[in-house]
Design a protein that fits this description.
three-stranded antiparallel beta sheet, two-stranded antiparallel sheet, 44% helix
Length: 100
Amino acid sequence: MAWYTIKKKETIMKHTKGKWTAVKGEYGLDIDANEGTIATIYANDGEAKANANLIASAPEMLEMLRILRSYIGDRGTYSGYMPFKPWDDLQSLIVKAEGN
């Protein structure tokens, strides 16, 4: 199994700040943030509700991924090492979410 050193990277949040929530809107399910509606899912069935909840959770999940990346990199006994594949997957997911 290959190993390498974790390097930290500063990130700037580009998405709408604040808590996102899934709510019933006029045309389906809205994803609302402190600035108003940021997205609408034009359906109102069980799958649409699940999708809306997943989208609304995205900023919190991204933040937890960043915390995890930081935590793994700062582990004293872990020495900042992690197998390539999980680290690459974590990094790729964060990059995808940040739109980079």
